[in-house]
């Protein structure tokens, strides 16, 4: 981890296209601005983790869904194959 000291108005450049600027420091609160291309996603960590957990939960197949799908496949029968 790179640790830097910056004052209000100073910046850090990440790669060629991302600039992180310290906008304001008040006590133990620091406001930062992030200038990044539109295709670069920027999230607060707690939001990123919530979205990630939600995506994992949505992608996980429940036992009920698996059983229902197996029933549909059984009723439809195996597709015929011709050589």
UniProtKB/TrEMBL annotation:
Principal place of residence: cytoplasm
Molecular function GO terms recorded: mRNA 5'-UTR binding
Compartment(s): Cytoplasm
Protein origin, superkingdom: Bacteria
InterPro entries: CsrA, CsrA_sf
Signal peptide stretch: none
Cited HAMAP family: CsrA
Family: Belongs to the CsrA/RsmA family.
Subunit architecture: Homodimer; the beta-strands of each monomer intercalate to form a hydrophobic core, while the alpha-helices form wings that extend away from the core.
Name of this chain's protein: Translational regulator CsrA
């Amino acid at each position: 981890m790179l640790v830097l000291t910056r004052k209000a108005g100073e910046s850090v450049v990440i790669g060629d296209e991302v600039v992180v600027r310290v906008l304001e420091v008040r006590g133990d609160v620091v406001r930062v601005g992030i200038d990044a291309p539109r295709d670069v996603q920027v999230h607060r960590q707690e939001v990123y983790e919530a979205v990630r957990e939600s995506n994992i939960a949505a992608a996980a197949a429940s036992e009920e869904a698996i059983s229902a799908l197996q029933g549909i496949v059984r009723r439809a029968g195996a597709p015929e194959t011709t050589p």
